[in-house]
Structures
1.
Amino acid sequence: MRSLAQLSALRLTDDEAERLTSDIEHILQYFEQLNELDTDGVPATYYGMDLVNSSRADEVSDTQLSRESLVELSEGGNIAGQVMVPKVL
Amino acid sequence: MSMNTISHYKQTIQEHSAEYAVREALESGRKDTHNVFISLYEERALARARQVDEGTVSGRLAGVPFVAKDNFLTLGGATTAASHFLENFHAPLQATAVEKLEAEGAICIGKVNLDAFAHGGSTENSAYGVTKNAHDTARVAGGSSGGSAVAVALGTVPFALGTDTGGSIRQPASFNGVVGIKPTYGAVSRYGVVAMASGTDTIGVLASTVSDTELLLEVLSGQDERDMTTLPDYFIPQDKPTGKKIGLIKEFMADGIDEEVSAQILSAVEKLQSDGYEIEEVSMPMLKYALAIYYIVVPAEISSNLARYDGIRYGTQKGNDGSLQDVYEMSRQAGFEAENKRRIIIGSFVLSSGSFDAYYQKAQKARTLLIREFNDLFERYDALIGPVAPETAFKIGQNTEDPLKMYLEDVMTVPPSLAGLPAVSVPVGKTKDGLPVGLQIIGKRRDDAQILAVARDVEAQYGQ
C-alpha cells in the first residue's frame, strides 16, 4: 500500500492505509472472476468508439479566454498586468 | 410535478417575466431543504434574466432556469466538483454544454451537489454534505448527479445538466422519479467538464418529460472542435420508434433484484406489449463480468486523469514549505475524499507493471466480449430494457462502510457505458413506500432518438 500510495502521490495516514488495504483486497477478490473468461486471441477494447482522428482547419480563432480574465482570476493578485502565482518551493 | 416542464416555464415567462421565473427558482434554491446546492449564481442569473426581458437574449430556452452539476465549468461562481481540492476554483471559461444552453437563452441559477469528482452512486461522497432523496429525506439521492436529479424532482428547475460515466445520470433519475439520459458516447461535448474517465464520460440531462429531454439533447449534441471525441451531428428526434421489438435482459431480472422493482418493470413490460411492442427475454452471459471490468478500466483512467491535481496548477495547495514531493502528496492528501483516493489507488494498482496484464489487459479484452454480446442482440432487437438499479433509493449511510457493496449498485448501469451505448431512465411507477422505480432503455450507438421514442411510449402509459 505504501508503494501504491507513493505511485499515486498520496500521503496516506496509517489509518487510511490500513483501511484501503482491506478494501482493495476485497475488491481485487471480486475482480478474480474475470479469470473464468477465455480471452485468448480476443483483441482489447482500449477505447469504445469507432472514431478516427479528425482535424480542424488550421486557422486562428477566438477562444473564450482573455488575458484580462486570467489576470482577474489569479489567486495571488497581479502586478502591472503580470499574474502572481503562489509560492511552490 | 407535471407542471415542471420547459413549456410551462415559457408560459410563466410570457405572463410575468424571465426575472420572475429566475427569482422563483433562486428562492427555492435558497431554501434548499435537501442540500441540493453548492452555490447559487444569483447575480449572473438575474443579469441574464433581465437581458431576456429586454430582448437582447433569445432562443428556444429563453429565460428558462436550470442547474448544472458542479463539475461543469461555469462563469458566475466557483466550480468545486464537490471536492475540497477545487473549493475556491473559479473557471476562466464555460463548458460547451453550458455555452450551448446559454446560446438558446437558458439561465444557470447555480451549481448542484455530486459525489466528489463524480466518484460514487449516492452523493454521499461530497465535501459539501449528503443530498437527500426528493421522495424520502432519510434516503440517498443516488449519484453521482444527485443534486441534478433532486433539483428537477422538487421542481426547483425544469432541467439539469449531469454527467454519466457508469450510471451517474440514470440511477439518480430512477431514484427520484425523473427522466435522465446518458447519450451515446461522444454525442455531447465534454469540453469544460471535470474529467473522470475520459473513455466512458458522457454529458446528459435530467428533466421531467421525454419531450423536454429530446429538445435539450437537440440543443446540446453535436461536434465540437474542442472535444475531438465528439461525433458528427446525428441526433434528430423521432415521433415514433423505428422498431418495436425489444429484449428484456434476463440477468437484470434475476436474483438480487428487489421484488417491488421487478414487479414494476414487469408491469411496464405488459403496458408496452398492450401498446404493440413485441418483448422477448434475452440473455447476456457477459453481464456478470461488467462490473469487474468497469471497476478496473475506470479507476485506471481516474488515476491518470486525476494526476493533474498536483497542488501547483490550480486548486488547494499544501506543504509548500517542504519539497516538491511534499507539495504533491500533501495537496492530494488534503484535497481528495476517501473514495477518490480508493479509486486512484485501484487505478495505480491495475496499471502497475506486475498487474497490467492480469487486470487491465484482461478487463479490456473482456470488454470486447461484452460489446460483441450487445452488438449481436442489436442485430435482432430495436432496444433492450431492464431496471436501472437492483433496488430503489437506499438509506443514507447504508452502504458507506462497504465500498464493494456500493459498487454493486452500479451493476445494471455500467454495461452500456463500457460499450458507449445510449441509455435512458424513465419513471415507471412507485413502490408501496412511495419510492420511484425507473425503466432503463438501452439502444445501439447513435440510437438516442430511438430509445427516447420508446421512452415517450412508456411515459404515455403512466401519464406524466
2.
Amino acid sequence: MGLLTYVVKKLLIGIPVIFGVTIILFYIMYMLPGDPIKLLLAGERVTPAKIEELRRAWGLDQPVYIQYFYWLSHVVRGDLGVSIVTKEPVTLLISQRLPYTLALMLISTLLSYAIGVLSGVLTALRRGTLVDSVVSITGIVGYSIPGFWFGLMLMLAFGRYLQILPISGYEGPHSLILPALSLALPSSAYVMRLTRAEMIEVLNEDYIRTAWAKGLNERRVLLVHALRNAMIPVVVMFFLDIPWLIGGAVVIETLFALPGMGRLLYVSIIRQDYAVVQGIVLIITVLTVVFNTLGDIVVAVLDPRVRVERGGGV
Amino acid sequence: MRVPEVLLDVRDLRICYETSRGCVKAVDGVSLEVYAGETFCLVGETGCGKSTLALAIPRLLPPNARILSGSILFKGVDLLRVSDSKLQELRGKEIAMIFQNPMTSLNPVHRVGFQVAEVPVTHFKMSWREALATAVRQLGRVGIADPDLRSRDYPHTFSGGMKQRSMIAMMTTCKPSLLIADEPTTALDVTIQAQILKLLHELKNEYGLTLLLITHNFGIVAEVCDRVGVMYAGKIVEVADVTEVFEAPLHPYTKGLIDCVVARRKSKSRLNQIPGTPPSLLNPPTGCRFHPRCAYVTHECVKEEPRLIEVRKNHLVACHNYEKVGGVSWSS
C-alpha cells in the first residue's frame, strides 16, 4: 500500500538524522572548554599521575572518534554510560526524571492545543466581531509574554497571594498545574493564530461553497469540510512542537524546581557531565525524529495529496 | 397555447459588493422569469453581474455582498426571505448549482464517492451504503469510467473534465427542479466543453429539470438554449427566444456580441469587436449604460435610462432606439 511505503521511507530517513545529531553533539561537547576531571575532583588535591589514571579510567585519553564509538557501542546495547558526577547510570538518572517531563509536556500540549484550536475556530467564525478582537488581542499579548515571566506571575498569584498551589518542587500532580500553564500559554496563542488563519482561508475555498450548495447543515460544513482541511497545518505544528517543549521545560522546570529532565539537562551542562547531556540529547533527538515521522504519517492520512507529492505512489 | 409555468421569478434584484472604494452595484434592478423545463441562458461579458445573480439564487454570495432590494421567487417561495434551515432543504435537492472551476470545487480530503453520497444522505435520509451505491450509479451516468473503482479515489486523481462530471453527478443525484450552471465549461478544454454541454442537455431532458446556464459564449447559447437573457453592466438589456436573438437582435449590445461570433464564418473579414470596455460598476455611466460604446447613441440615451419593455411577443429589450437596430447588422 502507498501509505505503508511512505511510512517506511520516513522511518528510514530518521535513522541517519539520529546518527548525525549524536556525532555533532559529541564533537561539540568535546570542544567545550573546561576539564571534566577537574570538575570531578572539585578542588581536591591529587597527583598528576592520579589525574592521568582517572582520565584513562573514564576513557577520556582516547581520540574523540574512539570515545564516540565506545559510547555508541554501549548505547545500542541500551547503556547510556555513567554520570561522572554522581557515578549513577545515566539511564537510571533519566528514567527517574523522564516521567515528570513527559507529564508536563503532555498536559501543557493538550492544554495549549485545546485552548488554541477552540479559540482559533471561534475567532474565525466570528471574524470582525468584538469576540474576535478581544480573543485575538489576548492572543497577541499572550504570545508576546515570555513563559518564565508568566510563570513568575502565576507563582505570585496562586502561590503567594491565594496560596492554593505549590510553587516549588514536586508535591503531587497539582504541582504540575502552574508549570503546565506557563508552558501552554505562549504556545496556545500561536496555535490560535494559526488555526484562525487556516480556518478563514479554508472557509473562502470553493469546495466550502460546494458543501453549502449541496444543502449540508452548518455543523457538517464546518466539521466535515472546513475543519478537516484547516486542521492539517495545525496537526503538523502539533507534532513539530512536542520536542520543542522540552527546551521550554528546561527553563520552566528550573523555575519551579521540578525534578524533570529539563532541569537535569541544565544542571548537567553546568557540571560538564558529558554522559548525561549526551543521553538526554539523544532522547530529545529520538523524540524529535519519532514525532516528526508521526506528524508526516498523520498528515498523509489526513491529506491524500501528500502521499503523491512526496513520493510513495497512489 | 399552454401558458408556461414560471419556476423562477427574479424581481427588481439589486446586489452590491462592499469594497474599500465604495459599493459596487453588480446587479442593479434585474427582473427575470425562468419557465419550468426550459434552458435559459444568461449571457454577458466578464464582470457584468451574471455570476452574482446566479449565486444569489441559492444565497451563496460571498460575505461582502449585500442584497439591497428585490425578491427571488422559486415555486412561489421567496428565497431571500426563507429561513436558513428551509434553504438548506432546498439546496442540492430542489435547487442545485455547478460552478465555474471544477479544479477547486471538490473537497481535496474526501473521496469523490463520499462527496456525491453526502447529498442523498442529507436529503433522502439514505443509509451510507445505499447512498454510496447511488453515487456510483450517478458517477457512471455522467460518464466516469469504472465508477465503482473511481468513486473511492480522491479528487486530485481526476482530470478537470472528470471533476466537472463529478460535480454534475453530485448536483443531479436528487433530480432537482432547477440546475444553475455558472460557466460550467469555461475552465475546460474545448473538446471537453462540448461533452459537458451535451451531458447537461441530456440530463435536463432525462430528469425534466430546468437549466439556468450562465455563459459568456454565444456559441454555447446557440447550441443548447431555449431562451436568452443578455446582461450588461448589472442590467438585463434583452430577453428573447434563442432564434429571435440570433435572427433579429434588438439591442445594439446583443447585436455586437452576435457579430463577434458570426464574423468568424466569413473567413477573410476581420473579427468584429465592440469598441471600448465595459464600464466600472462603481460609477456606471448616466442614462443607458451602453451609450459610450453604442453606434446608435442619441441625446436621450445619455440622459434617460431605457426600461426593459416587451416590444414584440416574448421579446423584451431595454433600448430607446431598438427600431433602428432591428435587422441591420454592424458588419454588413
3.
Amino acid sequence: MQPALLDRWSRQASILHRRDPRAKIAAALVFLVVVATAQPALLPVSAGLFLFLCAGLVVARLPLGGALLRAGIVLPFTLTFAAICWMAGDPWRGVSLILKSYLSALAVLLMVSTTPLPGLLRGFERIGAPRFLLMVSQFLYRYLFVITEQAQHMSKAAACRGGMRFRAAAGALAVLFARSYSQAEDIHRAMLSRGFEGRFHGPEDTRFRAADALFAAAACCAPLLLRLVIERVAA
Amino acid sequence: MHIPDGFLSTPVWATLDAAALPSVVVIARRAQRGFDESRIPLLGVMGAFVFAAQMINFPVGVGTTGHLVGGALLAYLLGPGAASVVMTSILIIQALVFQDGGLLALGANVTNMAIFGVLAGYLPYYLWGGGRWRRVSIFAGGVLSVLTSAALALSELLISGVKMPATVLGISSLLFLVSAILEGAITLAVVQALEGIRPGFVRKPKASPALGVAAILLATVGVLLASTAPDGIWKLAMTTGIAGHARSLFSTPFSGYELSFLQTPWLRKASAGLAGLALIYGACLLIGRAAARNRSV
C-alpha cells in the first residue's frame, strides 16, 4: 500500500528528519498560509515556492520525482474544478486552484515524509491539539492496515464466489464491524495487561534545540520573503 | 468530498478553522468524559473500520459501485459525540497521510462531515428512531448526512468564489443526491444485518438537551448558509422547474394582495433557503418510507 512508502521515507535520516516536529509544523503552516493568500503575480510566486519545496525535498534526501508524483494525488479533483472554472469563463481561477492545491499538497507531503506519524501527532499535541483526538487518530492509523486487509480478504473471497450482491455486501460490512468491535475490546484488554495508563509513551520527546529554533525561523521567513520579493519585482 | 487547500478563500477557511477547533475540543471533551479510556482503542478501530469499509463495494445498477461514508452509521452505533471524534480523526489521517483534503481546509472538512454531517445523520434517528418510523429515520439519516456535507461543501466553494455554471451545479447536486440515497440504503442495510448478528448493538436514541440545541443550531446554520448562497439553489430550482410550481403555490392563496414582507431581499433569500431545506427533508422522508417498505417485504 502507498502509505507504507511514506512510513519508509519518514524513517530515513537527514537534517530535516532530525528537526523537532513542532518546528516543521510551524514551517508547514506558515507556508500553507503564504500559498493560500498569494494573489498578485501568482505564477512567478508559485514557481519560486515550488523551487523552495524542491530544495527541501533534496535536503531531506527524498526521491524528487517520486515525491512530486505523490503530491499529484490532488490533481484529478483539482483539474475537474479547474475545467469547471474554465467553462464558467474564469480560466485564471482554474490555474490558481491547480497551483495552490498542488503546492499545499507538496508542502504537507514534505512535512509528513520527514516526520514519522507518531512524532508528528505528538508535536501537534504539544502545540495544544486535544490529546484524546490525537490518540484516536494514532490508533486509527495503527489498525488501518489490519482492518483494511480483512476487508480486502472479504471482498476477494466474495469475488471468488461470483461477486457480492447488495444484501451480501451489507452483511459483510456488519460482520466486519462486529469483528472490529470485539477486536477493539481485545486490544484494550491486552493494553491494560501491559500497563496502559491512558497515554502513549512514544519515542522520547525531543527537546526544542537552538537548531530547531533556527530552522523554524528560517523556514517560516523564507517563503514569506520569497513571495514579497517576487511580488515586488513582478510589479 | 474533501476540499483540498487552495480552494477556499481566506475568510472562509479561517472562519471555519476558528469555528471547528473549539467545537472539536468541546466534543472530544464530552466524548471523553462520557466513557472510560477503553473507548480510545474502540474509537480508533472504528475509524479504521470506516476506512476499510470503502474496500467493500456495493453494486448499484450495471457496472457502477458505491461505498459507505459512515457518518450516520457511526452515530447510531457509538453516539453522535463519539462519531464526531472518529470522523475528525479520519479526516486528520486523510489530510496528513493520504493528501486527501487540505490542512488549512481541515476546519471546513471537519465542519462539513464530522460535525454537521454526523449531527444531520443523527437528527432523524433521534427524533423518530424509537418508534414506528425507525427504519425510515435510519435511512433518512444516511441520506441527510451526505446531503448536508455536500451542500455545505458546495456553498463554501460558492462563497469562496469558485464559479460553477448552473448546469454543473445541477449535475453535481444530482450526483450527490444519488450517493446520498445510496448511503441511506447502505446504512439501513448494515444496521439491519448487524441487528441480525448481535441484537442490542445499535443504541436507542436517548434524549439530551444538548442535542436539541445542536439540532436547532444545525437548522439555523443550514438556513443561513443556504441563504448566503441562494443563487445556486435558486438556479437549480429554476432549471428543475420546482420554482415555477412553488411560486404559483405560494402566490395563489395570497394573490389578492402583495406579499410585502417577501420583498425584503434577505428574508426572501432566507425563505428560499428554508423552503429548499424543507423540500429536501420531506423528499428524504418519503423516499425512506418507500425504501423501508420495499426492504421489509
